[in-house]
Hints:
By secondary structure, this protein is mainly alpha-helical. Helix content is 74%, strand content 0%. It is built from 2 helices and no strands. The termini are far apart.
Amino acid sequence: MNTMMLNNLNPQTQSISLYKTLLFAANTALGVSVVCIAVSILISYPYAEHFSIPVQVSAHISTIVIAAILKVSYVLRCVAQHGLGQEVR
């Protein structure tokens, strides 16, 4: 039987797999955070008159929190690209 167990992989193969998983997760988090920050900004400013004050306050606070998540996601993406030997931009 020719099965390959994760324990039998060399460390370089394991790290490449880890970086690929990290890159996928970071890209997903970036996409979700961009959509969320766009929604929170729309609720906070141009469509504020359609929402109650508590919703507007939550949108303003979430804008700050989501911006931090977006920045961390981008840094993780850069780390993954560097680990995979890709151009980091």
